Amino acid sequence: ILLAFPPTQVDHLATVEAVVTKGKRKKTTLVRLDVKPTELPDAPNGTKYFTIYLANPINSGESTTLEVLYLFTHFLEPFPAEIGQSESQLVYYRDSALILSPYHIKQQTTFIKTPSTKVESFTRVVPTSRAGTEMKYGPYEDHPPYSSSPILVHFENNSPFPVVEELVREVEISHWGNLQVTEQYTLVHGGARHKGVFSRVEYQSRPTLSGTSSLRYLLARLPPRVHSVYRDEIGNISSSHLRMDSRKSELEIEPRYPLFGGWKATFVIGYGLPLQDFLFESSDDRRYLNFTFGCPLLETVVDKLTVKVVLPEGSKDPLAVIPFPVEQHLETKYSYLDVVGRTVVVMEKKNLVPSHNSHFQVHYTFKPIFMLAEPLMLVSAFFLFFVACVAYLHIDLSIRK
Ligand SMILES: *[C@@H]1O[C@H](CO)[C@@H](O)[C@H](O)[C@H]1NC(C)=O
Ligand SMILES: *[C@@H]1O[C@H](CO)[C@@H](O)[C@H](O)[C@H]1NC(C)=O
Q1: Nearest CA to ligand 2 atom 7
Q2: Closest CA relative to residue 152, chosen from 48, 87, 77
Q3: Among 286, 359, 360, 363, which is best to mutate for testing ligand 2, by the most ligand atoms less than 8 A from CB?
Q4: What are the pLDDT tens digits along the chain (401 aa)?
Q5: Which domains are seen in the chain, by residue range?
Q6: pTM for this one?
Q7: For the chain, is the Cβ count within 10 Å smaller at the N or the C terminus?
Q8: Ligand 1 center to residue 266 CA distance, Å?
Q9: CA of 20 to the centre of ligand 2 (A)
């Protein structure tokens, strides 16, 4: 089954997922289907396609129900593009009342949900109705392939738009029992740009009216049993709180100043994790790290993510296994006492949404004897030093006798 997207939407498309419901009534299960981008030679107006591969073919007269989820990023356009500290943020949403499709559609209804009941304006395509936070377009009967009917909805959206322009996560494996994670964030508020000067007095005295769309704090979901959490010392984060239970840890981060539209913050957080929760041995005598890809900050869009897995010195044949396409290469990193350097597996992905937060694995071979290399180096260095001292004290270097 083909899904079609106009070229204006494809650039914003972060993910497409499809599931089919199996079973009847209450005993339904969802089965995930493969979805792949597809090129068609005679695509009208630069239409882009994705193919959903059904688990079982549909025979003539049969039917099936699919659920498709796709996410766009940077899709809402703030209008006005600049707002003052106490103004509401309004945005435009553009779409088509009729879905773009290469198929004849017998009946279609489109619902649009807005975050609040404040809707400035919306295009009407009869029949169109609105109740509360929901707008209903349709039902439209019998429309031919590639029908389209553009709509524009202008509504209030006071959510801050947290966008991580760049995140570099470094995960360092130490066979002495620790997994050290360091994360470097460049965060921007992607909503309507802030206009005029910022008044902290007004901001703090009227929190419900002033800066309603500002970004006050961030929440990072970290794995359970996290320890030695730190943040940058320069003070780009003014406070942070850590809450832990047996299943997860949550780190609340408050930037030094609230972020308004267009404002940026850069900061670093780091933490340690017990290695046995993430490093396993596979059957073929290899080891593998099983860790989450994606950004620990909740509800953020990540424009560019780099994940670096630093393997212990002496590791061989690294292989990354990840459920979606990423760019990959290897680097070498030197840290204290390294002789040949550590292999670093680097993975990069653009345009990430929280549904990309799945697990990935990095497999590698490691000979335990390498673990002794650094202690032995230290032992021999100290040994030589003391031998030198002993020798120095026993040798008589004086010229006079
Ligand atoms: C703190 O913020 C400043 C200004 O945005 C930036 O230059 C600096 O690199 C940041 N410090 C860290 C450790 O990220
Ligand atoms: C990785 O960890 C997740 C969560 O603990 C688990 O569901 C998944 O099966 C693990 N994958 C592998 C290959 O071990």
Answers
A1: 359
A2: 77
A3: 359
A4: 999 999 889 989 999 999 998 877 778 888 899 999 999 888 888 899 999 999 889 999 998 889 999 999 999 999 999 998 888 999 999 999 999 999 999 999 999 999 999 999 999 999 999 999 999 998 999 999 999 999 999 999 998 999 999 999 999 999 888 999 999 999 999 999 998 888 888 888 877 777 788 888 889 999 999 998 887 766 677 777 888 888 889 998 888 888 899 999 899 999 999 999 999 998 777 999 999 998 999 889 999 999 999 999 888 899 999 988 899 999 998 887 777 889 999 999 999 998 888 899 999 998 877 777 777 888 888 899 999 999 888 887 777 76
A5: 1-72 (no CATH), 90-157 (no CATH), 162-374 (2.60.40.1730)
A6: 0.84
A7: C
A8: 5
A9: 24
Burial class from Cβ neighbours inside 10 Å (0-12, 13-18, 19+) for residue 286 reads middle
Tokens for 95, please give them. Answer: 């779409």
